[in-house]
Amino acid sequence: MPTTTQTADDAPEAMAEAGIERFLAGELAQQVQFLTARARGRGSGHANMMLADLGIKVRQYSVLSLAASGLKPSQRELGEFLALDPSQIVALVDSLEQIGAVQRETDPRDRRSKIIVATESGLELFERARTVLLESEDVTLGTLSQRERRQLRTLLMKIAF
Predict the structure, then answer these.
(1) Where along the chain do its domains lie?
(2) Assuming Cys at both sites, which of 68, 114, 138, 154 could form a disulfide with 126, CB separation 3.0 to 4.6 Å?
(3) In the CATH hierarchy, which top-level class contains the domain 31-160?
């Protein structure tokens, strides 16, 4: 059985394949779980970098967005919608409460439960953060047309809910 050896003539080709592009032909690069995790990581990483000046991160923004929506979510509802553990929700709400962006109020539907509402400064922070995240989304989705962006949102909604 013949063996293959790399010669000096093969070196430029091997060097060209040295970047991460060489992995695109592999099985992993075709797996939806990997692709969605990688896309999420890139998007969240960029968004967190852009939100840093506002002193919050994407997860805090998610809680703040729902608190600013007027829907008056309970902590339990936040956890269910955001697919986060109750302890994670408590920590996120605590951090937003410490900066005066949200407050806990008794839930009129269930007095044992707390709803999370944005304060006046929280509403202002939400608007500024929303603008930053829309800019970040434009960067992250920059290779997609408007039609492709709508299609992506539709497909992700089907998967997520």
Answers:
(1) 31-160
(2) 68
(3) mainly alpha
